[in-house]
Design a protein that fits this description.
Two copies of one chain form a homodimer.
Chain A lengths: L19 E5 L3 E2 L5 E2 L2 E8 L9 E5 L36 E5 L31 H14 L7 E5 L1 H12 L6 E5 L7 H15 L16 H15 L2 H8 L18 H16 L2 H13 L6 H7 L6 E7 L7 H13 L4 E6 L11 H16 L18 H9 L1 H8 L7 E4 L5 H8 L5 E5 L2 H9 L4 E3 L14 E7 L8 H11 E9 L4 H10 L24 H10 L3 E9 L4 E2 L4 H4 L2 E7 L1
Parallel strand pairs in A: 5-6, 5-7, 7-8, 8-9, 9-10, 11-12, 11-14, 12-13, 14-15
Antiparallel strand pairs in A: 1-4, 2-3, 4-6, 15-18, 16-17, 16-18
Helix pairs in contact in A: 1-2, 3-4, 3-7, 4-6, 8-9, 10-14
Chain lengths: 598, 598
């Protein structure tokens, strides 16, 4: 029989007033060996399961979190993810049945090292078996069975919670429609593991650790505080610490602590360490941080792909520019692996100075919340081109420009009916939403501007936040009917490279661009000796144009020839008249659209 | 009376066989209060002081270093900076009289916490007073007096040693001709201090620390090992740890240790920690890491400038791309502060994956050694344009190109005799070395390519490793007679911005560029409808040219007009004939050189 820690334990944090407890009497065989005979699960819920049973969202907490995601009423304590969960928030209990449970191995109500080991009759302590993220998910799965939830609308988590979301999609693909994976990775970096190892060594080498059987005494408070201080540094960023502590370097907060507080950052860490030991159990800390370190979808891209082979849900990956613990590159590796398997993936790197902790903060989750909200609003069907539940974002300026974009009409003429399309440099997804209306799917956008990426997600589109000049290797061969480069060619550094890519990832590449050899341009240059300048949106000065390349129709044809690209069709237009140009288009047309193939 | 630790102390590392000891009987009043009555200094020397007494090089060691920089003979133990110091190395005892002493507060022979406190009759322990980098330098200054060295040819150091080099130049400007500051900063980041704080807390909270009086017992071995493990992570880089540990993550080295060794990185750190306690004293670790954290030339650029106001020597700043403890941006802040005061500064960021430790490794110091060698070879005169002791680097390809560079001749015509010059985008310094031969000085180069920067230093030039598109704010107003932009304009993104800058930092700006409106270019474009292409070194294809901008003479004149830049003189040439063009240069000249002013 297991039992929670006694409530008079001074190390126990405030009780969770709305928490429920369920006991799984069936034992759990753990991944790394060992078994827990009976599991108590502490969880909270918000909202109601609808009659179709398809509005459940499981939230997975991070290392030091618990089931208390958000307040249940005005009198309740604030939860740890109020910025994302609650009335009017991205995950709104009015709409979703929200569940969060304390993880296996934790110390906030679910079976962990502070429970009584039925075999020995004393607390598990350091004898608590090694727990993996997979074991945590197994326990959550049983809870969902108990709650009669067959399939989750979404599983959502950041950090250790993001690892759980990944594990859910791998272990139980039929039970997850969508996964929101925030600030996570296929595996923690060796640097990250190193910090965890030092933290665990600090706990274990605190003599009060007493081989983990400290529950009747003071406990390894110094060791746990050291581990927390160290981990806390990895949750922040160099930039945010600079802003917070540099101006008052030698003016520490006056606090009572046994730790060094010469420097302001030292007093801050001392405070964080001292507070942490009041609410967290050292054995749980060792258990959960070890689970993070053991989580491993593989070292290489190939192994990560293989690990994710069973996953079928649609995905939203969010990472933060200043997160060095689970950096954007790690999130990209996950997204790339799933894209390689043609999964429906959206990925965005959010600009934030707050480091790994961004996922808990307004600074990081302002854009993040908008994306989670829109992503969850999409119908559960896995068609990434399906219409968004709400109307696409629209603004007058965009619509005026829209009317000017004659090239859309030309692109439609070259595009097979209902073809799947990837739009490279898709902006806010304007063209993709039109293609969606015309019945094309699946659709994917690639865009470099973060705010445009958010707009795409708000328009219900799948989109990858990426620099076209960094390559498209993550998109597999021939994974779309059409790869589109609409008025983007002139901003590309490696023009030849991108042309090779579009005919690799698309069965057909479609490229539209302004013809810089159009007669007025040539005349201007020849007569005036000034660099030619386009009109309308292309009216830049020679010294500040964002354009990198100045293609003419002839130059483009030569390049295709040189790279052995077949020109399937071409349309040339004088956009001032809207008429097609047949004779001498390089002189007479200012707009060209080509369909290419290898 | 102070005395070194007993030699039978098992925590003492191997004795330094060639170390000498000198006792300064005059007490030292310390910067942060407190006094040490008598200071024992342990030091080593290599080579001989020459008769002029001007070949002394002081090497300053880092936190865990000692006086043993290099072996004294074949039988000797290897020193910690063999890659830089020794026969045939950058700092060659054949040429220089090399000195290195253990720092005040250390544990390798110089007075520190393990010495007997004459007042109490027991070891200082934690009662050893707070020591600053300034105090360390004060003790070194006395040693130099003792050695009859009036002025150092150079002071050289990395990390904590770099801070000492900075302090030398500030405190005793008349005693330092040159400073080589490697992997240092005006102040450690708050993130860096945070790691140090956690390390010191680990030592002090080890019960065996016994308030610092542990010398008769086992000592705080676990705490010191933890501090070392943590610090060690900050000396490496994410990238180098990935390479070292990722492929064998769960295959730890089999070692005997009391620390966790589940992960390969864990066993590595355990080994590092265990070895460190065998050779280092915990109280010294606290003393020296606190000195690093207290070193502070100011938070803002203005304060850093003020702190460096007394310095007059010439400077070489080296930093490493992957160093996140003392990152390149911190080295840049130092160099910028000195440039603002028109000091002679050379700065280079060396590409290395080895993190902060790069300064101790072949990977980091291959280019670094070449630069230190050339930098030290310059005559001690402070004229940054003085001829290098060895011949400028030269290669046939460069010389052929040289002959083609007609624009040099035109530039010389627009350049006041003997004018000081900054060359923006200076390449390997070819033009600057010619200007040096023509009597121009001082001279400074700015270049983005690291290998070209090394070549400049090898050519005896001062050079700043910087991206012109990142701005030139560090160069003060009117600090050169001429700011030169030779055939570089076409690679600049913000053309207007750079033109503003050259007439700010130079009394006169000189700009040479290829005229893209030259008749053959216009004809090609008008007749063929293909983007014009230059000749020789400008013969790029439209789709892969590194050029960002395509200036014509008229466009350039318009821009100058628009930005209110005065054109003082202009020369236009047809480079095929070598003749000057007077009529319609925008059509007939392919090369233009302008002299500008605000």
């Amino acid at each position: 029989m297991s039992a929670p820690r006694s409530s008079d334990d001074s190390r126990m944090a405030r009780p969770l007033r709305h928490a429920k407890t369920w006991v799984s009497s069936e034992g759990v065989d753990l991944e790394n060996g060992g078994r827990v005979e009976e599991v108590t699960v502490c969880y909270e819920t918000w909202g109601e399961l609808n009659s179709a049973g398809d509005n459940a969202v499981l939230i997975c907490h991070a290392l030091s979190g618990d089931s208390h995601v958000a307040r249940h009423d005005a009198d309740d304590d604030a939860g740890w993810w109020e910025i994302l969960v609650g009335p009017g928030r991205a995950i709104d209990p009015e709409r979703f049945f929200v569940i969060c449970s304390n993880v296996l191995g934790g110390c906030r109500g679910t079976t962990g090292p502070n429970f009584i080991d039925p075999e020995s009759g004393r607390r598990f302590g350091a004898d608590f078996p090694v727990v993996t993220v997979g074991d945590m998910v197994e326990v959550q799965r049983r809870l969902l069975d108990h709650l009669d939830i067959e399939c989750l609308s979404a599983v959502v988590g950041g950090s250790l919670g993001g690892l759980q979301a990944l594990e859910w999609a791998i272990r139980a693909p039929h039970r997850v429609n969508a996964a929101v994976v925030i600030a996570a990775a296929p595996r923690l970096s060796s640097q990250g593991i190193a910090f965890d190892v030092v933290g665990r060594n600090a706990i274990r080498h605190d003599p009060s650790f007493a081989s983990g059987q400290y529950y009747e005494a003071a406990g390894p408070e110094a060791g746990l505080a050291l581990a927390r201080m160290l981990a806390h540094v990895t949750y922040l960023s160099d930039e945010s610490m600079r802003a917070k502590f540099d101006p008052t370097r030698l003016q520490p907060r006056s606090i009572e602590t046994g730790f060094e507080s010469t420097f302001s950052v030292g007093s801050y860490l001392a405070y964080q360490g001292d507070r942490f030991v009041e609410r967290f159990d050292a054995n749980s800390y060792i258990t959960l941080s070890t689970a993070m370190d053991l989580f491993d979808l593989g070292e290489t891209d190939g192994k990560v792909r293989a690990s994710l082979a069973s996953a079928t849900c649609r995905w939203l990956f969010l990472s933060f520019s200043s997160d060095w613990l689970y950096p954007p590159s790690a999130s990209k590796q996950l997204a790339d692996a799933l894209m390689a398997r043609s999964c429906s993936v959206t990925r965005c790197v959010i600009e934030s100075s707050a480091g790994h902790d961004s996922f808990l903060l307004e600074e990081g989750m302002r854009q993040g919340g908008r994306m989670v909200s829109s992503f969850l609003s999409r119908p559960d069907g896995r068609d990434q081109g399906a219409r968004a539940a709400h109307e696409p974002r629209s603004n007058p300026a965009t619509n005026i420009f829209h009317a000017q974009r004659l090239d859309y009409q030309l692109i439609f003429r070259l595009m097979p009916k209902g073809a799947s399309v990837v739009d490279l440099g898709c902006g806010n997804g304007e063209l993709l939403t039109i293609l969606r209306d015309r019945g094309h799917r699946p659709l994917l956008g690639v865009e470099w501007d973060a705010e445009e990426v958010v707009a795409c997600v708000e328009n219900g589109l799948s989109v990858i936040h990426a620099d076209l000049d960094q390559g498209l290797a993550s998109i597999p061969d021939r994974s779309f009917d059409v790869a589109l480069l609409s008025q983007t060619l002139q901003s590309i550094v490696d023009v030849g490279g991108i042309l090779d890519e579009i005919v690799r990832i698309g069965r057909r590449g479609i490229v539209s661009f302004p013809n810089f050899a159009h007669a007025p341009m040539r005349e201007m240059f020849a007569r005036e000796g000034r660099l030619p300048k386009g009109e309308g949106p292309y009216e830049y000065e020679w010294h500040d144009t964002p354009n990198r390349r100045f293609p003419s129709i002839l130059d483009f044809q030569d390049l295709c020839d040189h790279r052995q690209l077949r020109i399937l069709e071409a349309i040339y237009v004088d956009s001032r008249t809207g008429e097609e140009v047949v004779q001498d288009p390089n002189l007479k047309a200012d707009l060209a659209v080509f369909a290419l193939a290898r």
